[in-house]
Amino acid sequence: MGETERRDPYTVLGVGLHASQDELRAAYRRKAFELHPDRSGGGDPSEWPGGRMAELNAAWQSIGDPERRRDVDRARADASAAHAATQRGAATPGPRAPAVSDAPLRHGSPPSLMAAMAGIVPWGALVLLLGAILVFTAYAGGPSDEGPAESGGTIVVRDVRGSCIRQADGFTLVVNCGSSPHEGRIVAQGSIGAECPTGTRAFVVPQEDIVACADPDTAAP
Question: Could you tell me the pTM of the whole model?
């Protein structure tokens, strides 16, 4: 498989995952102008950046058309979900608590202090771990910042309407509307590839396995 097939079309065009079609078109034209041989006055044809131009054209063909772009975004989301499932399957189970015997203690043979501590310490460590998780969850922003719930290994899509959308470092996150900046309040949601209502802006949220429709008039800079 060639380099053109392997490279991400968004990276080739130099745009974000949620760039508009007009932004994609402008990025393509700018890159094509930079690579065009006439810009350098012709020169030796063997030195023209034909491979890079072919890569640029392939990227434009992949996401320049809205329907093809939806297919690319859907494949990206499927790959992300498959990777997450693989990571969950590779997780190592935690240590098991020691079994507690139901046999009565023999008269005159009380357990030693070390034996009693052996049964208490693992449970104490578990309690401390659960407490640390609860503190971290509260500090991180509460339930609206969590990912999709899981039940029996199946991702359960949660209702994120009323929360807000934030874009940062190439990621799209569902956040509390009290935090800022954000791109607007989510008024509708659907499966990846679904159309959003008129007047709203669509955001693909792979970790939630949804398309979130946000009202841009409620955005907080």
Answer: 0.35
